[in-house]
Amino acid sequence: MKKGNMIIKNSSELVTCSGNKAKFGKEMGNINVISNGAVVIEDGIIKDVGNTEDILKKYDETKYEVIDAKDKCVLPGFVDSHTHFIFGGYRAEEFSWRLRGDSYMEIMNRGGGIVNSVTGTRNATKEELFDLGKKRLNSMLKFGVTTVEGKSGYGLDYETEIKQLEVMKELDEEHPIDICRTFLGAHAVPNEYKGRTDEYIDFILEKVLPKVAEDKLADFFDVFCEKGVFSVEESRKMFLKAKEYNMKLKIHADEIVELGGAELAAELGMVSADHLLHASDKGIKDMAEKGVVSTLLPTTAFCLKEPFAKGRFMIDNGCAVALATDFNPGSGFTNSIPLMFALATIYMNMSIEEAITAMTLNGAAAIDRADEVGSIDIGKKGDIVILEYPSYKFLPYHTGVNIVEKVIKNGVLVHNN
Ligand SMILES: [Zn+2]
């Protein structure tokens, strides 16, 4: 990937989100704003940050690509730390059924739900999935996303799970957005294993996981721990095995009912636990204590008309909260950062500053990359978003509208609106 030399100067607000690990509780409100700020990027890496006058005394502008950010706000590139963006087929019909009030079971009986995406993904060629993935990454980039996490889990068989991960590996090499890969073979029990969950778990652990680990196809191992899918006991068994392969852990926890996923995340010291709509107060406090990032996905709750996760309560109890889109073909086919930002600030009572931390530094921490992305700090990747307005406060104020003007990845201008 190309790496650039760049100076961004005269920014009315340079929001650094400074830090190299997750911010917990009250700390999330501290985003560190430099007025009339400038950033220097050399060979793709941030070399200096400060006041424009001070910076321009030290560096020769003629040696860099220069962007004048006068009357613009500059932020770190956004990190979308939970998505399922590699899939075949769409479920628009199913969405319309849900809008008219059909029940989950009725939709399932008509062939809807995850099975639909599994069929579409199994039938898609690697090239088709690559092209779809690229198109979706291009859309994310326009919203200012410079790092994304993507999961397998629409294969639920050996070939397709591997295919999804390999497609993301190839996209990571070709596309400006960095991709963190997660193996989610335990997303559901496929039809051919119906009533034989134990056998499917053995298949995942004995046949697929060793290949994923050996070929380094994924950084993370994830389980959909939910009533009627995988129990806490089944999930624990899988996570312990994945740990033996040195994989990092994250979990889909307490989305539909309170099952104890948050507690399990704390017990096993996972990097993040995600969804958490029905997480218990104890689980939330355990996670804060053990340093597990709480990744909240408000656009999914919105699309499903579910109550939002208790973001305010979590922050007040010392959690590190991250926000992600959960971009997926079923419960929320959206990668809209502005929609997510609006829901987090208006409905989840997160402050604007906390929501920014949740989309940058804490998003990076949720995929264990807070030492390389998520803030504008010396030594990190030159991943930058420039807004068309002078203040970060326009993010929720210009509600639901994409106000990203420029996106810079590794010091290279990759999107210019
Ligand atoms: Zn998910």
Offer a concise description of the structure.
The chain has 16 helices and 16 strands. Helix content is 37%, strand content 22%. The two termini are 22 Å apart.
Strand content: 15-25%
Number of helices: 16
Q: State the major sheet.
A: 8 strands, mixed
Detail the poorly predicted runs: none
Oligomer: single chain
Classify the secondary structure makeup into a structural class. alpha/beta
Number of strands: 16
Shape designation:
globular
What percentage of residues falls in helices of 4 or more residues?
A: 25-40%
Mean pLDDT: 97
| End-to-end separation | 22 Å
| Rg, alpha carbons | 21 Å
**Distinct compounds present:** zinc ion
Tell me what the structure shows:
The protein is of the alpha/beta class and 417 residues long. It has 16 helices and 16 strands. The protein has helices at 52-58, 92-99, 104-109, 114-123, 126-142, 158-174, 197-214, 232-244, 261-267, 281-290, 298-303, 311-316, 337-347, 352-359, 361-366, 394-397, and strands spanning 6-15, 33-42, 45-51, 65-68, 73-76, 78-80, 145-151, 178-186, 220-225, 248-253, 272-275, 293-296, 320-323, 384-387, 404-409, 412-416. 53% of the residues are buried. The strands form two sheets. Strands 1, 2, 3, 4, 5, 14, 15 and 16 form an eight-stranded mixed β-sheet that branches. Bound molecules: zinc ion. The site of zinc ion (ZN) has 4 residues, from loops.
